[in-house]
Fold this protein.
Amino acid sequence: MELGCLGSSVARVGLLLGVLSGTAFAKDSPLSSSGLPVPRYVSLKSDHVNVRSGPTKDNDVAWVYTRSGLPVEITAEFENWRRVRDSEGAEGWVYHSLLSGHRTAVITMKRKDDLAALYEYADETSAVVARLQVGVIAQVKKCTSGWCHVAGNGFDGWIEQPRLWGVYADEKVE
């Protein structure tokens, strides 16, 4: 009987160490605090989001995000804290209430100075309605068959999914 208690204590410590160290769990893992899949994309609710070195308010603030709507990827959960990664690969812990399920994405290109074409339809032979710079944040309205319908300040159209950070390859967003 004592061995069973020790075993469950070891399992809890192992789970905590796995969460803190970033061990990847399956998308439908019951280990998610929220019951939602991990990893997943979300966005920042505020233009002032503290990112901490660990999942408590006792941990130091490593940096502050100052861009509302910025997409981040949740890579782990611990109670009400979410470990997030941004498009540049920086990781830290954010309190869950500072995150939104509203989907956004950042425009990415191979070269920083290239512009991403935004099309009228999900077809590269349709009219180009805008050209977007790297780093522009877009609201993701829908993704299907390798294309995403995005909108933002002064633009609305379709973009090839690989041009976005904040949407998984071949992910369907509705």
